[in-house]
From TrEMBL, chain A:
Protein name: Sugar ABC transporter permease
Membrane topology: Multi-pass membrane protein
Recorded superkingdom: Bacteria
Record lineage: Bacteria, Pseudomonadati, Pseudomonadota, Alphaproteobacteria, Hyphomicrobiales
Family annotation (Pfam families): BPD_transp_2
GO molecular function: transmembrane transporter activity
GO cellular component, one term: plasma membrane
Record keywords, A-Z: Cell membrane, Membrane, Transmembrane, Transmembrane helix
Source organism: Bradyrhizobium nitroreducens
From TrEMBL, chain B:
Organism superkingdom: Bacteria
Natural source organism: Bradyrhizobium nitroreducens
GO cellular component assignments: cell envelope
Protein name, as recorded: Sugar ABC transporter substrate-binding protein
Subcellular localization, as worded in the UniProt entry: Cell envelope
Length: 330, 321
């Protein structure tokens, strides 16, 4: 595993370094850091902080994709959970707010898992239902307006800091460690990969594939709920129309940039989060560059294409011939 | 449309239908787009208030963002032989045949908030809309007046790229600012009309402009982005409204809250009261035969901290924004 990781992550790390270097060129103060009211302040911190929602989403998404599934509903689940958190924030304590929001995420995940694993629906269709309906549910909760709150506990989740780091970043890091410990510290990760690789063979070999699938959708829902709470806490309000809008696509992109195949069977948590960071480093760079906004999407598309080409086996095949020749000689 | 509002609307409609129409009372059908934004909800509630004020029987049909629903609603208004029809068109084309039906039935149609394709000009009585270029100009003029002759670097939070409102609000502001050599828009980026993006973009503006020291004013194409930008400024240790002037457009309740706290300076109102001028035009047309101009422009009123923001906040917060 340790021997595998650097080679697998090479393209992603290279891409991140290149994009960071470009950011430094378009914005000379990119790496400047200073303390502001007890928290670190600078563009690098912005990248980590703004990248948190997609990083959290990609943590759940990567497991779903490893089972050969996909979850299009995470953006809508963010909106639902953010709306619940915001509506309860000023009347209830933080534990109740978090329990309600994460509970809603869990229920959403159960629903998706039920449709996919029990009713055998195709994941893209099954989760499309909640993607469309979920935003409507969120709008019903907020009654179509932006629900604002001032509860300092919840605001702290979005804007506070621990040892200078923004709280959202600390949460995302903890979730990465927790998820990694659970799936890689046990055989669970292997069983998830087996389910995605060949569900029927795994079933015959005694893997509870149905339970695996439900479990990954539930985890995906919980990660989305957390992302939704953080997004609401960040702007001190729940915006049902816009919270998490199109973020499901960014999360899928992060997973793909992280080298996980959409055909399932293998995954890397760390690289998926790295994928999310690559996307955000690029986004922040675009904002800092001062180019007209009409170019935003174009720049993004070109960079994503370049990163994916970097990973393409066919392309690296050409480059690889030279290395292989060297190896055979040695 | 939220359920509550839907129930309220249908209850109101039922109540109004049950009332005996006394002589001379106008009955007007209003095909509303739906509840796409807080502003839209406010427009619906203000329309009801304005109709009640003038003792007009206003029947509101919610189209849930679908043109076919609007066409159905207009046909049913024609069948009910209402005195006039208000239409807030969800798209600008495809209205010709249904508007012709209204014309044949001699029912005047008034467009609210949005215009339709110019080919149908003779098919409606008048259009009551705001001029979004003018809104940008009002914002720019206020800034020019407030800054005076000092040099001022402005950063701009644009609306969604390609949205006509965003293009127009940028154009108007640029025109106003171009008249003053000391004003310069140094950065302009889209915040997609949302709080979250407004905050993120402002964070990057602050970093790119020496921690915010080089920024003298922020102009946002809507108040929501400004609310996000205000948070970004506060988190960077800046004082919005003092260190950096703010001017935005829409006049939603939350920007008045920021004004009360001294964190926002000015906003230009996109009035939710489109029905008021429309009702007056229809009444004059029915009573005296006065044909209104083809376009009735609503006022783009500027609000600052001098306008008792607390009172405006209280009056606006119940409108459904």
């Amino acid at each position: 595993m340790t021997a595998l990781l650097p080679r697998r992550g090479f393209a992603q790390i290279l891409a991140l370094i290149v994009i960071l270097a470009v950011d430094r060129v378009v914005s000379p103060q990119f790496f400047d850091l200073r303390l502001q009211d007890g928290r670190l302040f600078g563009s690098l911190i912005d990248v980590l902080n703004r990248g948190t929602p997609v990083a959290l989403l990609s943590l759940g998404m990567v497991l779903v994709i490893a089972t050969r599934g996909i979850d299009l509903s995470v953006g809508a689940v963010m909106a639902i959970c953010g709306a619940i958190a915001a509506s309860l924030a000023d009347t209830h304590g933080l534990p109740v707010v978090l329990a309600a929001a994460l509970g809603a995420g869990l229920v959403c995940g159960l629903w998706n898992g039920f449709l996919v694993a029990v009713l055998g629906m195709q994941p893209i269709v099954a989760t499309l239902i909640l993607m469309v309906a979920g935003r409507g549910i969120a709008q019903l909760i907020t009654e179509g307006r932006i629900v604002t709150f001032s509860s300092p506990d919840l605001v702290w989740l979005g804007n506070g800091s621990v040892l200078g780091l923004p709280v959202p970043v600390v949460i995302a890091l903890s979730m990465l460690i927790l998820t990694g410990a659970v799936v890689r510290g046990s055989a669970l990760g292997l069983l998830i990969e087996a389910t995605g690789g060949n569900a029927r063979a795994s079933e015959l070999a005694g893997v509870g594939t149905r339970a695996m699938i439900i479990a990954v959708y539930v985890w995906c829902g919980i990660c989305a709920a957390l992302a939704g709470v953080i997004a609401a806490a960040d702007i001190m309000g729940a915006d049902a129309n816009n919270a998490g809008l199109w973020l499901e696509l960014d999360a899928i992109l992060a997973v793909v940039i992280g080298g996980t195949s959409l055909f399932g069977g293998r995954f890397s948590l760390v690289l998926a989060v790295l994928g999310a960071l690559i996307i955000q480093t690029m986004n922040t760079g675009i904002l800092l560059s001062g180019y007209p906004p009409e170019f935003n999407l174009l720049v993004k598309a070109v960079v994503v294409l370049a990163v994916l080409l970097l990973q393409s086996p066919k392309l690296s095949g050409f480059a690889g011939i030279a290395t292989r020749l060297k190896r055979t000689k040695a | 449309m939220t359920l509550k509002a839907l129930f309220a609307a249908s209850a109101t409609a039922a109540l109004l239908l049950a009332l005996p129409a006394h002589a001379g009372q106008l009955t007007i059908g209003f095909s509303q787009i739906g509840s796409e934004s807080g502003w839209r909800a406010a427009e619906t509630s203000v329309s009801k208030q304005e109709a009640t004020k003038r003792q007009v029987n206003l029947k509101i049909a919610d189209a849930q963002q679908k043109q076919e629903n609007q066409i159905k609603a207009i046909r049913s208004f024609i069948a009910q032989n209402v005195d006039a029809i208000f239409l807030a068109p969800v798209v600008s084309t495809g209205w010709d045949s249904v508007l012709k039906e209204a014309k044949e039935a001699k029912i005047p149609v008034v467009l609210l908030d949005r215009d339709i394709d110019p080919s149908g000009k003779e098919l409606y009585l008048t259009a009551v809309t705001s001029d979004s270029v003018h809104e940008g100009e009002v914002a720019g003029d206020w800034l020019a007046k407030t800054v005076g002759t000092k040099p001022c670097n402005i950063v701009e939070l644009q609306g969604t790229v390609g949205a006509s409102v965003a293009t127009n609000r940028k154009k108007g502001f640029d025109t106003a600012v171009a008249k003053h050599a000391n004003l310069k828009v140094v950065r302009s980026q889209t915040g997609d009309f949302t709080r979250a993006k407004g905050k993120e973009v402002m964070e990057s503006f602050i970093k790119a402009e020496g921690g915010g020291k080089n920024i003298c004013a922020v102009y946002a194409h809507n108040d929501d982005m400004m609310v996000g930008a205000i948070q970004a400024m506060k988190e960077a240790g800046l004082k919005p409204g003092k260190d950096i002037l703010t001017v935005s457009i829409d006049a939603v309740p939350d920007i008045f809250k920021a004004m009360v706290a001294g964190e926002a300076n000015a906003t230009v109102e996109l009035t939710p009261n489109m029905a008021g001028p429309a009702l007056d035009a229809v009444a004059a047309f029915k009573d005296k035969g006065t044909v209104p101009p083809k376009w009735i422009q609503t006022e783009s009123k500027l609000y600052t901290a001098a306008d008792d923001p607390q009172k405006i906040y209280d009056s606006k917060k119940g409108l459904g924004y």
